[in-house]
Write a structure and sequence with these properties.
2 domains, binds S-adenosylmethionine, elongated, Alpha/beta knot, three-stranded mixed sheet, five-stranded parallel sheet, 9 helices, alpha/beta, 10 strands, Trp Operon Repressor, Chain A
Length: 244
């Protein structure tokens, strides 16, 4: 998977990608991230990427010329890519969009805005607008990294054990079940006995039950959309009785 990021702060992107799983994904060739500094595509002496808003008002606006120049430069290769504008007004990014990208896309261009926003004409050269949530950040670099990270960990061979991604929150339609590691007892809190017994059928059932319980408590809205089996429905009824 190739991501291309247009930003005025390339170092933010590069710093995150130089550590941990993202670094290993790059080393293994599963991920490539080409970062382009929008400032390199300015044509004036001051390399200015922002300007005052027409009509007045607070803040500066990211100029269209360097962004158009950068896209035209990148697209000289003639390759297909999905151009994504990062903006708080976009479709809200989710695990299912990450799965769709990991499955269908080979090359994604992410445009990170800054300042009060971008010149409206930049919208005309994008395929899609994505937000990472209903809040406003100072720039699109964190949203770009959120998307790169969430997609990359779904690519084959990136996580040591592919079951890690398959069993997680949202992938199954539910939140994840609780996890424990050593010691068995910590400050009076014991690991549930079922996890120590080695009976895989009982462990699977306990995990499913606790995933249902956590979802019911913390994100009951997910249960309406989740694909629940008859056994799940029974477990859910039991949990509801226990919780009352
Ligand atoms: N005035 C804009 C608005 O109200 O929609 C916010 C601009 S924000 C300060 C600057 C840049 O940060 C945006 O152009 C966008 O690229 C990025 N950004 C901020 N919050 C974001 C979010 N929740 N999702 C995606 N991008 C975001």
């Amino acid at each position: 998977m190739v991501f291309e990021v247009l930003t005025i702060f390339p170092a933010i992107i590069e710093a995150y990608l130089s550590e941990s799983i993202m670094r290993r994904a790059v080393e293994r060739g599963a991920l490539r991230v080409d970062v382009y500094n929008i400032r390199d595509f300015t044509t004036d002496r001051h390399r200015q990427v922002d300007d005052y808003p027409y009509g007045g008002g607070a803040g500066m606006v990211l100029k269209p010329e360097p962004v158009f120049n950068a896209i035209e430069h990148i697209e000289r290769d003639g390759l297909e890519r999905r151009r994504v504008l990062l903006t708080p007004g976009g479709r809200v990014f989710s695990q299912s969009i990450a799965e769709e990208y990991a499955r269908q896309e080979r090359r994604i261009l992410l445009i990170a805005g800054r300042y009060e926003g971008i010149d409206e004409r930049i919208r005309t050269v994008t395929d899609e607008e994505l937000s990472i949530g209903d809040y406003v950040l100072t720039g699109g670099e964190l949203p770009a990294l959120v998307i790169i990270d969430a997609v990359t960990r779904l690519l084959p061979g990136v996580l040591g054990d592919s079951r890690s991604a398959e069993e997680e929150s949202f992938t199954t339609g539910l939140l994840d079940h609780p996890h424990y590691t050593r010691p068995v007892e910590f400050r009076g809190m014991r690991v549930p006995e079922v996890l120590l017994g080695g009976n895989h059928r009982l462990i699977r059932r306990w995990r499913r039950r606790e995933a249902l319980r956590r979802t019911l408590r913390q994100r009951p809205d997910l249960l309406d959309k989740a694909d629940l089996s008859e056994e799940d429905q029974e477990l859910l009824e039991e949990i509801k009785e226990e919780e009352e």
